[in-house]
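Researcher: First entry.
Model:
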Amino acid sequence: MNTALPPNRKRSEEITIQYFEFLDRHLAELISGVSIEMLELQDIANILCVSQKHLIKIIQETSGNHPCHFYVQKILTCTKSLLTNSELTISEIAQRLTYDPSNFTKFFKKYEGMSPSQFRQLQKAKSSP
Protein backbone atom coordinates (compact mmCIF):
# COMPACT_ATOMS: atom_id res chain seq x y z
CA MET A 1 0.00 0.00 0.00
CA ASN A 2 1.21 3.47 -0.82
CA THR A 3 1.44 5.43 2.44
CA ALA A 4 2.39 8.77 0.88
CA LEU A 5 -0.64 11.05 0.80
CA PRO A 6 -1.19 13.90 -1.60
CA PRO A 7 -0.95 17.17 0.31
CA ASN A 8 -4.68 17.85 0.01
CA ARG A 9 -5.93 14.40 1.11
CA LYS A 10 -6.74 13.65 4.72
CA ARG A 11 -5.79 10.32 6.27
CA SER A 12 -9.49 9.54 6.81
CA GLU A 13 -10.16 9.95 3.08
CA GLU A 14 -7.22 7.68 2.28
CA ILE A 15 -8.49 4.97 4.67
CA THR A 16 -11.94 5.23 3.09
CA ILE A 17 -10.51 4.82 -0.41
CA GLN A 18 -8.37 1.90 0.73
CA TYR A 19 -11.40 0.25 2.35
CA PHE A 20 -13.52 0.42 -0.81
CA GLU A 21 -10.64 -0.69 -3.04
CA PHE A 22 -9.94 -3.58 -0.70
CA LEU A 23 -13.59 -4.70 -0.74
CA ASP A 24 -13.59 -4.74 -4.55
CA ARG A 25 -10.35 -6.76 -4.66
CA HIS A 26 -11.44 -9.16 -1.95
CA LEU A 27 -14.78 -9.93 -3.58
CA ALA A 28 -13.12 -10.38 -6.98
CA GLU A 29 -10.67 -12.82 -5.38
CA LEU A 30 -13.54 -14.75 -3.80
CA ILE A 31 -15.46 -14.98 -7.05
CA SER A 32 -12.39 -16.06 -9.00
CA GLY A 33 -11.44 -18.64 -6.37
CA VAL A 34 -8.14 -16.97 -5.46
CA SER A 35 -9.44 -16.45 -1.94
CA ILE A 36 -11.67 -18.96 -0.18
CA GLU A 37 -12.51 -17.10 3.02
CA MET A 38 -14.84 -14.12 3.44
CA LEU A 39 -13.02 -11.69 5.70
CA GLU A 40 -14.61 -10.13 8.75
CA LEU A 41 -14.50 -6.39 9.37
CA GLN A 42 -11.82 -6.93 12.04
CA ASP A 43 -9.64 -8.71 9.47
CA ILE A 44 -10.04 -5.88 6.99
CA ALA A 45 -9.20 -3.29 9.62
CA ASN A 46 -6.04 -5.22 10.51
CA ILE A 47 -5.01 -5.37 6.85
CA LEU A 48 -5.55 -1.60 6.59
CA CYS A 49 -3.48 -1.12 9.79
CA VAL A 50 -6.27 0.52 11.79
CA SER A 51 -8.44 -0.67 14.64
CA GLN A 52 -11.92 -1.91 13.83
CA LYS A 53 -13.39 0.86 15.96
CA HIS A 54 -11.38 3.50 14.07
CA LEU A 55 -12.35 2.01 10.70
CA ILE A 56 -16.03 2.12 11.65
CA LYS A 57 -15.74 5.73 12.82
CA ILE A 58 -13.93 6.88 9.68
CA ILE A 59 -16.23 5.12 7.20
CA GLN A 60 -19.30 6.44 8.98
CA GLU A 61 -17.90 9.98 9.01
CA THR A 62 -16.72 9.99 5.39
CA SER A 63 -19.47 7.90 3.79
CA GLY A 64 -22.49 8.16 6.05
CA ASN A 65 -22.94 4.46 6.82
CA HIS A 66 -21.35 1.64 8.77
CA PRO A 67 -18.66 -0.23 6.81
CA CYS A 68 -20.78 -3.40 6.93
CA HIS A 69 -23.50 -1.59 4.96
CA PHE A 70 -21.10 -1.11 2.07
CA TYR A 71 -19.73 -4.65 2.39
CA VAL A 72 -23.26 -6.06 2.11
CA GLN A 73 -24.06 -3.79 -0.85
CA LYS A 74 -20.94 -4.92 -2.70
CA ILE A 75 -21.75 -8.59 -1.99
CA LEU A 76 -25.24 -8.01 -3.39
CA THR A 77 -23.85 -6.26 -6.47
CA CYS A 78 -21.49 -9.19 -7.13
CA THR A 79 -24.30 -11.67 -6.56
CA LYS A 80 -26.67 -9.89 -8.93
CA SER A 81 -23.97 -9.72 -11.57
CA LEU A 82 -23.27 -13.44 -11.25
CA LEU A 83 -26.98 -14.28 -11.33
CA THR A 84 -27.46 -12.17 -14.45
CA ASN A 85 -24.25 -12.84 -16.36
CA SER A 86 -23.16 -16.37 -15.48
CA GLU A 87 -24.48 -19.89 -15.65
CA LEU A 88 -23.24 -20.69 -12.13
CA THR A 89 -25.87 -22.33 -9.98
CA ILE A 90 -27.10 -20.44 -6.95
CA SER A 91 -25.33 -22.99 -4.78
CA GLU A 92 -22.05 -22.35 -6.65
CA ILE A 93 -22.45 -18.59 -6.24
CA ALA A 94 -23.15 -19.04 -2.53
CA GLN A 95 -20.08 -21.23 -2.12
CA ARG A 96 -17.82 -18.77 -3.94
CA LEU A 97 -19.00 -16.09 -1.55
CA THR A 98 -18.45 -18.54 1.35
CA TYR A 99 -22.13 -18.85 2.26
CA ASP A 100 -24.11 -21.95 3.06
CA PRO A 101 -26.67 -22.05 0.19
CA SER A 102 -29.74 -21.83 2.47
CA ASN A 103 -28.26 -18.94 4.46
CA PHE A 104 -27.28 -17.26 1.20
CA THR A 105 -30.87 -17.39 -0.05
CA LYS A 106 -32.10 -15.88 3.24
CA PHE A 107 -29.42 -13.17 3.06
CA PHE A 108 -30.30 -12.27 -0.53
CA LYS A 109 -34.04 -12.29 0.11
CA LYS A 110 -33.65 -10.07 3.19
CA TYR A 111 -32.05 -7.31 1.12
CA GLU A 112 -33.62 -7.80 -2.30
CA GLY A 113 -37.12 -8.94 -1.35
CA MET A 114 -36.90 -12.03 -3.57
CA SER A 115 -34.87 -15.21 -3.74
CA PRO A 116 -31.79 -15.48 -5.97
CA SER A 117 -33.70 -17.79 -8.32
CA GLN A 118 -36.58 -15.31 -8.57
CA PHE A 119 -34.08 -12.53 -9.29
CA ARG A 120 -32.42 -14.62 -12.02
CA GLN A 121 -35.78 -15.45 -13.62
CA LEU A 122 -36.77 -11.79 -13.57
CA GLN A 123 -33.50 -10.78 -15.24
CA LYS A 124 -33.92 -13.44 -17.93
CA ALA A 125 -37.49 -12.26 -18.56
CA LYS A 126 -36.28 -8.65 -18.92
CA SER A 127 -33.62 -9.61 -21.45
CA SER A 128 -35.93 -11.79 -23.56
CA PRO A 129 -37.50 -10.16 -26.62
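Researcher: Second entry.
Model:
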Amino acid sequence: MALSGGIDSAVSAWKLIQDGYEVEAAFMKNWSSTKGLKYDECPWLVDRQDALRVAAFLGIPMHTVNYEKEYEKNVLNYFFQEYKAGRTPNPDVMCNKEIKFKMLYNWAMKNGFDYVATGHYAQVVEIKKATRAKTSPVDNFSKNEKMVGKWSSAKKASLKPAKFGADGGANEGSGFQLLRSADNFKDQTYFIYNIRTPQLPHILFPIGGMKKDEVKKLAKKIGLPNADKKESMGLCFVGKIRLKEFLDQKLKPKRGKIVAISAKDGGRQVTTEVIGEHEGLAYYTIGQRQGVRVGAGGPWYVARKDLKKNELLVTNDPNDKLLETTEVEIHSVNFITTPLSLSNKKDSTSGGKPEAKLQARFRHQGELVPITIQELGKDLYLVKFKKPQQAVASGQSLVMYDDKVCVGGGVII
Protein backbone atom coordinates (compact mmCIF):
# COMPACT_ATOMS: atom_id res chain seq x y z
CA MET A 1 0.00 0.00 0.00
CA ALA A 2 1.46 3.36 -1.07
CA LEU A 3 0.97 5.21 2.22
CA SER A 4 1.42 8.95 1.79
CA GLY A 5 0.35 10.15 5.22
CA GLY A 6 -2.96 11.45 3.88
CA ILE A 7 -6.50 10.31 4.60
CA ASP A 8 -7.16 8.65 1.24
CA SER A 9 -4.28 6.17 1.43
CA ALA A 10 -4.92 5.54 5.16
CA VAL A 11 -8.57 4.61 4.55
CA SER A 12 -7.49 2.51 1.56
CA ALA A 13 -5.09 0.51 3.74
CA TRP A 14 -7.81 -0.04 6.36
CA LYS A 15 -10.27 -1.26 3.73
CA LEU A 16 -7.73 -3.74 2.34
CA ILE A 17 -7.17 -5.18 5.82
CA GLN A 18 -10.94 -5.51 6.28
CA ASP A 19 -11.12 -7.38 2.97
CA GLY A 20 -8.60 -9.93 4.20
CA TYR A 21 -5.46 -8.79 2.39
CA GLU A 22 -2.06 -9.04 3.99
CA VAL A 23 -0.95 -5.42 3.82
CA GLU A 24 2.43 -3.74 4.06
CA ALA A 25 2.91 -0.01 3.59
CA ALA A 26 5.46 1.81 1.46
CA PHE A 27 6.29 5.47 1.96
CA MET A 28 8.09 7.18 -0.93
CA LYS A 29 10.69 9.82 -0.17
CA ASN A 30 10.90 11.78 -3.41
CA TRP A 31 11.81 15.31 -2.39
CA SER A 32 13.43 16.80 0.71
CA SER A 33 14.49 20.29 -0.39
CA THR A 34 12.59 23.37 0.83
CA LYS A 35 13.98 25.83 -1.71
CA GLY A 36 11.24 27.70 -3.53
CA LEU A 37 8.48 26.36 -1.30
CA LYS A 38 5.63 28.56 -0.14
CA TYR A 39 6.07 27.27 3.40
CA ASP A 40 9.55 26.86 4.90
CA GLU A 41 9.09 23.31 6.08
CA CYS A 42 10.13 19.83 4.99
CA PRO A 43 6.85 18.21 3.85
CA TRP A 44 8.22 14.69 3.52
CA LEU A 45 9.14 14.52 7.24
CA VAL A 46 5.62 15.55 8.31
CA ASP A 47 4.03 13.14 5.83
CA ARG A 48 6.29 10.26 6.84
CA GLN A 49 5.49 10.83 10.50
CA ASP A 50 1.76 10.73 9.69
CA ALA A 51 2.27 7.57 7.62
CA LEU A 52 4.13 5.92 10.52
CA ARG A 53 1.30 6.79 12.89
CA VAL A 54 -1.26 5.27 10.50
CA ALA A 55 0.83 2.14 9.99
CA ALA A 56 1.20 1.71 13.76
CA PHE A 57 -2.53 2.24 14.27
CA LEU A 58 -3.33 -0.40 11.64
CA GLY A 59 -0.63 -2.77 12.87
CA ILE A 60 1.19 -3.09 9.55
CA PRO A 61 4.90 -2.77 8.71
CA MET A 62 6.07 0.25 6.73
CA HIS A 63 8.94 0.46 4.25
CA THR A 64 10.53 3.77 3.27
CA VAL A 65 11.80 3.82 -0.31
CA ASN A 66 13.95 6.66 -1.62
CA TYR A 67 13.37 7.85 -5.18
CA GLU A 68 14.81 11.35 -4.90
CA LYS A 69 17.29 10.86 -7.75
CA GLU A 70 14.66 9.40 -10.06
CA TYR A 71 12.15 12.10 -9.09
CA GLU A 72 14.62 14.89 -9.82
CA LYS A 73 15.66 13.32 -13.12
CA ASN A 74 12.26 12.32 -14.50
CA VAL A 75 9.83 14.75 -12.87
CA LEU A 76 11.54 17.97 -11.75
CA ASN A 77 13.89 18.23 -14.73
CA TYR A 78 10.91 17.65 -17.01
CA PHE A 79 9.04 20.35 -15.09
CA PHE A 80 11.78 22.93 -15.68
CA GLN A 81 12.48 21.92 -19.29
CA GLU A 82 8.84 22.22 -20.28
CA TYR A 83 8.46 25.66 -18.75
CA LYS A 84 11.67 26.75 -20.45
CA ALA A 85 10.22 25.63 -23.78
CA GLY A 86 7.14 27.78 -23.20
CA ARG A 87 4.81 24.91 -22.39
CA THR A 88 2.71 24.16 -19.29
CA PRO A 89 3.70 20.73 -17.92
CA ASN A 90 1.75 18.48 -15.60
CA PRO A 91 4.30 17.08 -13.13
CA ASP A 92 1.65 15.04 -11.28
CA VAL A 93 1.04 13.01 -14.46
CA MET A 94 4.78 12.42 -14.87
CA CYS A 95 5.15 11.54 -11.17
CA ASN A 96 2.53 8.80 -11.46
CA LYS A 97 4.08 7.53 -14.68
CA GLU A 98 7.71 7.46 -13.57
CA ILE A 99 7.54 7.03 -9.80
CA LYS A 100 4.33 5.46 -8.44
CA PHE A 101 3.48 3.14 -11.30
CA LYS A 102 7.03 2.43 -12.39
CA MET A 103 9.59 2.70 -9.57
CA LEU A 104 7.26 1.69 -6.73
CA TYR A 105 5.41 -0.83 -8.87
CA ASN A 106 8.67 -2.49 -9.92
CA TRP A 107 9.91 -2.51 -6.33
CA ALA A 108 6.71 -4.26 -5.21
CA MET A 109 6.86 -6.88 -7.95
CA LYS A 110 10.56 -7.52 -7.28
CA ASN A 111 9.90 -8.01 -3.57
CA GLY A 112 7.17 -10.58 -4.03
CA PHE A 113 4.01 -8.51 -3.59
CA ASP A 114 0.97 -9.46 -5.66
CA TYR A 115 -0.59 -6.00 -5.81
CA VAL A 116 0.18 -2.31 -5.56
CA ALA A 117 -2.57 -0.23 -3.97
CA THR A 118 -2.91 3.56 -3.90
CA GLY A 119 -5.44 6.06 -2.62
CA HIS A 120 -6.41 7.32 -6.07
CA TYR A 121 -10.04 7.94 -6.91
CA ALA A 122 -10.27 5.48 -9.81
CA GLN A 123 -11.49 1.93 -10.43
CA VAL A 124 -10.14 -1.20 -12.11
CA VAL A 125 -12.71 -3.69 -13.35
CA GLU A 126 -12.47 -7.07 -15.04
CA ILE A 127 -14.58 -7.46 -18.15
CA LYS A 128 -15.64 -10.55 -20.04
CA LYS A 129 -15.17 -10.85 -23.77
CA ALA A 130 -18.91 -10.86 -24.40
CA THR A 131 -19.30 -7.43 -22.79
CA ARG A 132 -16.69 -5.69 -24.91
CA ALA A 133 -18.11 -3.25 -27.40
CA LYS A 134 -16.22 -0.24 -28.73
CA THR A 135 -12.99 -0.77 -26.79
CA SER A 136 -10.52 -3.55 -26.16
CA PRO A 137 -7.56 -3.97 -23.75
CA VAL A 138 -4.09 -3.88 -25.29
CA ASP A 139 -0.61 -5.13 -24.42
CA ASN A 140 1.27 -1.83 -24.45
CA PHE A 141 4.64 -2.72 -22.95
CA SER A 142 7.78 -1.95 -24.91
CA LYS A 143 10.54 -4.55 -25.10
CA ASN A 144 12.94 -2.61 -22.87
CA GLU A 145 10.53 -2.52 -19.92
CA LYS A 146 11.74 -5.74 -18.37
CA MET A 147 10.29 -5.39 -14.89
CA VAL A 148 6.97 -3.63 -15.38
CA GLY A 149 4.31 -6.20 -16.19
CA LYS A 150 6.59 -9.24 -16.10
CA TRP A 151 5.82 -11.96 -13.57
CA SER A 152 7.63 -15.04 -12.36
CA SER A 153 5.77 -18.34 -12.65
CA ALA A 154 5.53 -18.51 -8.85
CA LYS A 155 3.79 -15.16 -8.68
CA LYS A 156 1.36 -16.11 -11.43
CA ALA A 157 0.06 -19.00 -9.38
CA SER A 158 -0.67 -16.76 -6.38
CA LEU A 159 -2.59 -14.04 -8.19
CA LYS A 160 -6.26 -13.94 -7.22
CA PRO A 161 -8.01 -11.78 -9.84
CA ALA A 162 -5.68 -12.13 -12.82
CA LYS A 163 -6.06 -14.86 -15.40
CA PHE A 164 -2.85 -14.38 -17.31
CA GLY A 165 -1.10 -16.30 -20.05
CA ALA A 166 2.65 -16.73 -20.35
CA ASP A 167 3.08 -13.38 -22.07
CA GLY A 168 1.54 -11.40 -19.21
CA GLY A 169 -1.57 -10.61 -21.25
CA ALA A 170 -5.15 -11.36 -20.32
CA ASN A 171 -6.69 -14.65 -21.41
CA GLU A 172 -9.05 -14.82 -24.36
CA GLY A 173 -12.20 -14.52 -22.24
CA SER A 174 -11.40 -11.56 -20.02
CA GLY A 175 -9.56 -8.30 -19.69
CA PHE A 176 -9.22 -5.30 -17.39
CA GLN A 177 -10.14 -1.66 -17.79
CA LEU A 178 -9.53 1.57 -15.90
CA LEU A 179 -12.78 3.35 -14.98
CA ARG A 180 -13.57 6.76 -13.59
CA SER A 181 -14.29 6.82 -9.86
CA ALA A 182 -17.70 6.98 -8.23
CA ASP A 183 -16.87 10.56 -7.22
CA ASN A 184 -16.99 12.50 -10.48
CA PHE A 185 -15.47 15.62 -8.94
CA LYS A 186 -12.54 13.83 -7.29
CA ASP A 187 -11.90 11.41 -10.16
CA GLN A 188 -8.13 11.09 -10.68
CA THR A 189 -7.93 8.96 -13.82
CA TYR A 190 -6.64 12.11 -15.53
CA PHE A 191 -3.38 11.76 -13.60
CA ILE A 192 -2.87 8.00 -14.07
CA TYR A 193 -3.65 7.44 -17.76
CA ASN A 194 -0.08 6.18 -18.33
CA ILE A 195 -0.78 2.93 -16.48
CA ARG A 196 -0.09 -0.01 -18.78
CA THR A 197 -2.83 -2.53 -19.49
CA PRO A 198 -0.96 -5.61 -18.12
CA GLN A 199 -0.52 -3.76 -14.81
CA LEU A 200 -4.24 -3.41 -14.17
CA PRO A 201 -4.82 -6.86 -12.59
CA HIS A 202 -2.11 -6.01 -10.05
CA ILE A 203 -3.36 -2.54 -9.08
CA LEU A 204 -5.95 -1.83 -6.39
CA PHE A 205 -7.85 1.41 -5.77
CA PRO A 206 -9.77 0.62 -2.55
CA ILE A 207 -11.66 3.95 -2.35
CA GLY A 208 -12.44 4.24 -6.06
CA GLY A 209 -16.07 3.37 -5.43
CA MET A 210 -16.50 5.97 -2.68
CA LYS A 211 -17.19 9.69 -2.49
CA LYS A 212 -14.66 11.96 -0.79
CA ASP A 213 -17.05 12.91 2.02
CA GLU A 214 -17.65 9.20 2.69
CA VAL A 215 -13.90 8.66 2.99
CA LYS A 216 -13.58 11.52 5.49
CA LYS A 217 -16.46 10.21 7.59
CA LEU A 218 -15.01 6.69 7.57
CA ALA A 219 -11.59 7.99 8.65
CA LYS A 220 -13.14 9.58 11.73
CA LYS A 221 -15.39 6.61 12.44
CA ILE A 222 -12.50 4.16 12.62
CA GLY A 223 -10.36 6.65 14.57
CA LEU A 224 -7.44 7.09 12.16
CA PRO A 225 -4.77 9.33 13.73
CA ASN A 226 -4.70 11.57 10.64
CA ALA A 227 -8.49 11.79 10.21
CA ASP A 228 -8.44 15.59 10.53
CA LYS A 229 -5.51 16.14 8.18
CA LYS A 230 -6.15 18.64 5.42
CA GLU A 231 -5.81 17.55 1.82
CA SER A 232 -2.36 18.14 0.34
CA MET A 233 -2.13 20.67 -2.46
CA GLY A 234 0.55 21.85 -4.84
CA LEU A 235 3.27 20.07 -6.77
CA CYS A 236 3.36 16.28 -6.40
CA PHE A 237 5.53 15.37 -3.35
CA VAL A 238 6.91 18.91 -3.13
CA GLY A 239 3.95 20.86 -1.78
CA LYS A 240 2.83 24.43 -2.24
CA ILE A 241 5.42 26.38 -4.18
CA ARG A 242 6.04 29.93 -5.25
CA LEU A 243 6.11 29.13 -8.96
CA LYS A 244 8.27 32.11 -9.88
CA GLU A 245 10.88 31.39 -7.21
CA PHE A 246 10.83 27.68 -7.96
CA LEU A 247 11.38 28.25 -11.69
CA ASP A 248 14.10 30.80 -10.97
CA GLN A 249 16.23 27.99 -9.53
CA LYS A 250 16.92 26.64 -13.01
CA LEU A 251 15.59 29.20 -15.48
CA LYS A 252 16.60 32.75 -16.32
CA PRO A 253 13.43 34.24 -17.83
CA LYS A 254 13.76 37.45 -19.85
CA ARG A 255 11.41 40.39 -19.59
CA GLY A 256 9.53 41.30 -22.75
CA LYS A 257 6.56 43.08 -24.23
CA ILE A 258 2.93 42.40 -23.38
CA VAL A 259 0.99 42.91 -26.59
CA ALA A 260 -2.78 43.38 -26.71
CA ILE A 261 -4.40 41.58 -29.63
CA SER A 262 -7.95 41.00 -30.81
CA ALA A 263 -9.64 38.84 -33.40
CA LYS A 264 -13.08 40.24 -34.05
CA ASP A 265 -12.95 39.76 -37.82
CA GLY A 266 -13.85 36.11 -38.30
CA GLY A 267 -11.18 34.97 -35.85
CA ARG A 268 -8.35 36.75 -37.68
CA GLN A 269 -5.88 38.81 -35.66
CA VAL A 270 -6.59 42.43 -36.64
CA THR A 271 -5.03 44.73 -34.00
CA THR A 272 -1.91 44.76 -31.84
CA GLU A 273 -0.72 47.23 -29.21
CA VAL A 274 2.10 47.13 -26.66
CA ILE A 275 0.50 47.68 -23.25
CA GLY A 276 3.08 46.51 -20.74
CA GLU A 277 6.03 44.30 -19.84
CA HIS A 278 5.99 40.66 -18.73
CA GLU A 279 8.48 39.11 -16.29
CA GLY A 280 9.26 36.04 -18.38
CA LEU A 281 7.12 33.82 -20.63
CA ALA A 282 7.69 30.79 -18.41
CA TYR A 283 5.48 32.35 -15.73
CA TYR A 284 2.37 32.39 -17.92
CA THR A 285 0.04 29.81 -19.41
CA ILE A 286 -2.64 29.96 -22.11
CA GLY A 287 -5.95 31.26 -20.79
CA GLN A 288 -4.36 32.66 -17.62
CA ARG A 289 -6.11 35.68 -16.14
CA GLN A 290 -4.56 36.29 -12.74
CA GLY A 291 -1.01 37.57 -12.77
CA VAL A 292 -1.27 39.50 -16.06
CA ARG A 293 -0.48 42.83 -14.43
CA VAL A 294 -1.20 45.50 -17.00
CA GLY A 295 -3.65 47.79 -15.28
CA ALA A 296 -6.36 49.56 -17.21
CA GLY A 297 -8.56 47.86 -19.75
CA GLY A 298 -8.58 44.43 -18.08
CA PRO A 299 -8.97 41.76 -17.05
CA TRP A 300 -6.51 40.41 -19.60
CA TYR A 301 -6.25 36.80 -20.76
CA VAL A 302 -3.14 35.10 -22.16
CA ALA A 303 -3.86 34.09 -25.75
CA ARG A 304 -0.42 33.25 -27.17
CA LYS A 305 3.26 33.16 -26.26
CA ASP A 306 5.64 34.22 -29.04
CA LEU A 307 8.94 32.60 -28.03
CA LYS A 308 10.92 34.07 -30.95
CA LYS A 309 9.93 37.64 -30.18
CA ASN A 310 9.65 37.00 -26.42
CA GLU A 311 6.18 38.57 -26.45
CA LEU A 312 3.11 37.75 -24.37
CA LEU A 313 -0.05 38.20 -26.44
CA VAL A 314 -3.16 39.01 -24.41
CA THR A 315 -6.79 39.93 -25.00
CA ASN A 316 -9.38 41.55 -22.75
CA ASP A 317 -12.26 39.81 -24.53
CA PRO A 318 -13.09 36.50 -22.74
CA ASN A 319 -14.92 35.37 -25.89
CA ASP A 320 -12.08 36.25 -28.25
CA LYS A 321 -11.63 33.67 -31.02
CA LEU A 322 -7.90 33.71 -30.30
CA LEU A 323 -8.62 31.89 -27.04
CA GLU A 324 -10.38 29.08 -28.89
CA THR A 325 -8.92 25.83 -30.18
CA THR A 326 -10.65 23.48 -32.61
CA GLU A 327 -7.98 20.77 -32.85
CA VAL A 328 -4.66 19.72 -31.30
CA GLU A 329 -1.99 17.12 -31.88
CA ILE A 330 -0.89 14.86 -29.05
CA HIS A 331 2.27 12.79 -28.57
CA SER A 332 3.57 10.30 -25.98
CA VAL A 333 0.22 8.56 -26.30
CA ASN A 334 -0.63 5.62 -24.05
CA PHE A 335 -3.70 3.54 -24.82
CA ILE A 336 -4.91 1.50 -21.86
CA THR A 337 -7.89 0.37 -23.88
CA THR A 338 -7.81 0.67 -27.66
CA PRO A 339 -10.93 2.00 -29.43
CA LEU A 340 -11.79 -0.77 -31.89
CA SER A 341 -12.76 1.75 -34.57
CA LEU A 342 -9.25 3.23 -34.31
CA SER A 343 -7.47 -0.12 -34.50
CA ASN A 344 -9.58 -1.45 -37.38
CA LYS A 345 -7.59 -0.31 -40.41
CA LYS A 346 -10.17 -1.65 -42.88
CA ASP A 347 -13.19 0.14 -41.41
CA SER A 348 -12.38 3.75 -42.21
CA THR A 349 -14.49 6.64 -43.49
CA SER A 350 -11.89 9.37 -43.05
CA GLY A 351 -9.71 9.31 -46.12
CA GLY A 352 -8.07 5.99 -45.38
CA LYS A 353 -7.19 6.81 -41.78
CA PRO A 354 -9.30 5.20 -39.01
CA GLU A 355 -10.71 7.45 -36.32
CA ALA A 356 -12.59 7.09 -33.07
CA LYS A 357 -15.24 9.24 -31.43
CA LEU A 358 -14.65 9.64 -27.69
CA GLN A 359 -14.84 12.17 -24.87
CA ALA A 360 -11.82 13.96 -23.42
CA ARG A 361 -10.66 16.47 -20.87
CA PHE A 362 -7.51 18.57 -21.20
CA ARG A 363 -7.25 19.60 -17.55
CA HIS A 364 -8.01 17.90 -14.24
CA GLN A 365 -11.68 18.32 -13.29
CA GLY A 366 -12.29 19.86 -16.68
CA GLU A 367 -15.52 19.19 -18.53
CA LEU A 368 -15.67 16.03 -20.63
CA VAL A 369 -16.06 17.16 -24.25
CA PRO A 370 -16.74 15.17 -27.45
CA ILE A 371 -13.71 14.58 -29.67
CA THR A 372 -12.59 12.66 -32.73
CA ILE A 373 -9.10 11.17 -32.67
CA GLN A 374 -7.14 10.06 -35.72
CA GLU A 375 -3.65 8.59 -36.03
CA LEU A 376 -1.24 10.77 -38.03
CA GLY A 377 1.91 8.72 -37.66
CA LYS A 378 4.01 6.89 -35.14
CA ASP A 379 3.05 8.19 -31.67
CA LEU A 380 1.27 11.21 -33.15
CA TYR A 381 -2.48 11.73 -33.16
CA LEU A 382 -4.83 14.48 -34.28
CA VAL A 383 -7.65 15.35 -31.88
CA LYS A 384 -10.58 17.42 -33.17
CA PHE A 385 -13.03 19.01 -30.75
CA LYS A 386 -16.70 18.89 -31.67
CA LYS A 387 -16.97 22.46 -30.36
CA PRO A 388 -14.11 25.00 -30.00
CA GLN A 389 -12.47 24.86 -26.57
CA GLN A 390 -10.88 27.68 -24.62
CA ALA A 391 -7.50 27.81 -22.91
CA VAL A 392 -6.00 24.60 -24.28
CA ALA A 393 -2.37 24.73 -23.16
CA SER A 394 0.57 23.04 -24.87
CA GLY A 395 2.31 20.58 -22.52
CA GLN A 396 -0.84 19.60 -20.66
CA SER A 397 -2.28 16.10 -20.96
CA LEU A 398 -5.39 15.28 -22.95
CA VAL A 399 -7.07 12.20 -21.48
CA MET A 400 -9.73 10.26 -23.39
CA TYR A 401 -12.78 8.35 -22.25
CA ASP A 402 -15.35 5.97 -23.70
CA ASP A 403 -18.21 6.73 -21.32
CA LYS A 404 -16.73 5.71 -17.90
CA VAL A 405 -13.74 3.85 -19.36
CA CYS A 406 -10.44 5.75 -19.34
CA VAL A 407 -9.08 4.89 -22.77
CA GLY A 408 -5.70 6.61 -22.35
CA GLY A 409 -4.17 9.92 -23.25
CA GLY A 410 -1.25 11.94 -24.52
CA VAL A 411 0.55 15.28 -24.24
CA ILE A 412 -0.68 18.30 -26.20
CA ILE A 413 1.90 19.67 -28.64
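Model: Note on the second entry: Residues 143-173 have pLDDT under 50 and may be disordered.
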